[in-house]
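Give me C-alpha cells for this 581-residue protein.
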Amino acid sequence: MSRGYETVRSTPPGILLIKSIRGKEWRHRTYRYVVLLITFIAYACYHASRKPSSIVKSVMDPHPKQIIGENPWPVGEIFVKEDSSINRTRKGGWAPFNGTDATSKLGEIDVAFLACYSMGMYVAGHLGDTLDLRLFLTSGMIGSGIFVVLFGMGYFWDIHVFWFYLLMQMIAGLFQATGWPSVVAVIGNWFGKRKRGLIMGVWNAHTSVGNISGSLLAASVLDSGWGWSFILPGLLIILGGIIVFLFLPAYPEDIGFPCPHSSTSSVCGESTDEEMEVGRGNSELSATNTPINVPRNGSVSRRSVGLGQACLIPGVIPFAFCLFFTKLVAYTFLYWLPFYISQTDNKLLDARPKSLASFEDDKAIDASQSAIGEEYMSVKSAGNLSTLFDVGGIVGGILAGYISDKLNARAIIAASFMYAAIPSMLLYRLYGSISQTLNIVLMMIAGLFVNGPYALITTAVSADLGTHKSLRGDSRALATVTAIIDGTGSVGAALGPFLTGFLSTKGWNAVFTMLIVCALIAGLLLSRLVFEEITEKMCKPRPLSRAEQSFAAVQHLNPFWEIKDDNKTGMALQISDLSKN
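Here you go.
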C-alpha cells in the first residue's frame, strides 16, 4: 500500500458504546486484555469449525463390527462404550463415503480444504497488511461459518454427490485462511518482544481450546445426525465474527496510542500505562471521546511489505519449511486421531497368548477393532478422548514459549521439542492400547511435544520476524510474514491427512513411520539457526552487575567521580569527586 493512502478507520462500535456508558477512556492495559480475549475467542472459533470432519469420519465410513460392553468407562457419558443408537447410525454410512474407497475420499476432502487454506494464506497475509484487520477478520469468520453450515446441510438435504462436499470444504478453506495472519498481526500490533513467547504461548491455547470445544460440540449432537456436528460449530464462528466486528481494536494508532514498532516509539511490551498515555498525545478528549491531537490514519500510512521482501528477512525460510513438517504431524493428529482411536488395528490382541486369544474369539471380538484396555470405544467416546491430545498441546505451547523467552532461543527450543516428539509418538503407538490411563498419559505427552513447536513458530517466531529490525519500524510485515510461514506449514498440513488416508489402508504403522520421519526432518531444518544461537550465546559477554552498571553510569557523567559500593548489596553508597583532591 502506498504511503499516501489515507483511509480513516473507526473505533469498533462496541467499544464506543462501552465508553459512552462509562464516560471515560480505557487505559492501554485494558485494551491489551480486550485484544487478547477477543483474538483468543476468534481463533478458537476457527479451530472449532475445523474439527467436525474428524468426528464424523467414523459415521460416514462405518466399521462393520463392534462389541457392546457392559459398563461405561470412566465417567458416565463422557467416555462410553458402543451403544445401540450409534450403531444404528453407523450401519450404512453415508454415500459417497461408505464405499471401498471411503478413506481415500475422506482424505481428499481434507486435502481440498487444507490446499485452499494454504494457497489462500499467501493472499490473505498481504491483504491483512493492506486492509482493515477488524473488517477482514470479520468477513473471513462469517464466510467460513456459512460454508461449514452448508456442508452440514447436506445431511438434511440428503445430498450424496461428492463434488458438493468437496466444493464446500474448498470455499471454507479459503475463508479460513483469513484467520491466522490477522490474529497474529493484531497481537503483534499491541505487544512488543518482551515476554512475547510466554504471552503468545498462553494465548495460543486457543488452538487446543478450539479443537476441544469443536470435538465436544460435534460429538454431543452426533446422535441427532452428523449434519448438526457441522451446523453448530458453523454458527459458533459466525457469532465470533460478530464479536470481532463489535469489539476488536486492531491497531493502537486507531484509538490514539502510538505504534509500538515505529522508529519513534518505545517497545510496547516494555512500556508502562503511564508512558503509553503520554505517547497518546497528552490530549483532551473531544465530544466523541476521540483524542484531538492524534492522527487517526497512522495505521494505514505505512507501506506493506511484498512477499519477496518478507522472504528475505533472516529466519523466515528455515522456520517456514520447519513448520511444513511440524504442521504435517500436528494436522494428521487433528484430523485422524478420533478415527485412529475408534478403528485402529489392535496389535496387542494379536500378540497375546493363544489361550487368551481363544477366549477372546469365544466372545466374538474382532482383532482388527480398537480396544483400549480391552474395552471398545464408540465414535462419540473416541472424539471426546482425542481432546486430551490438545490438552497436552496447551501445556506444550506455554512451556515452549516460556523456555524460549528465558533462554532467548526460539530455534533451539523448537528443534528440541520436535526431536522429543519422536519417542513420544513411538511410545503412544506401541503402548497406547494397554490401558485407558496409559493411553491418556502417552497421548498428552505426544500432544505436548508435537504442538509445542507448532505453537511457538506460528506465534512468537512469526511476530518476531514480522517486526524484525531490518524493517526499521516503517513497514508493516506482520501478517505477510505470518502468512508465508503458516502458509508453507499449511501445505504440509494438507499433505499429512491426505497421505494418511492412503497409508492407513496399509496399516497404522506406516502412518506413524511417516510422522516420525517428518518430525526428524523438522528438527534438522533448524540446525543452522540452532548453531547460530548456540554460537551467539557462547560469545555473548557476561552481563554487568547492578554495581557495575551504576559505576558505568557515573563514569559516563563525570570521569573524575569515584563510586564506592557495598560488597553485600552491590548498591552504590557513596560518590566522591576526585577532581577536588
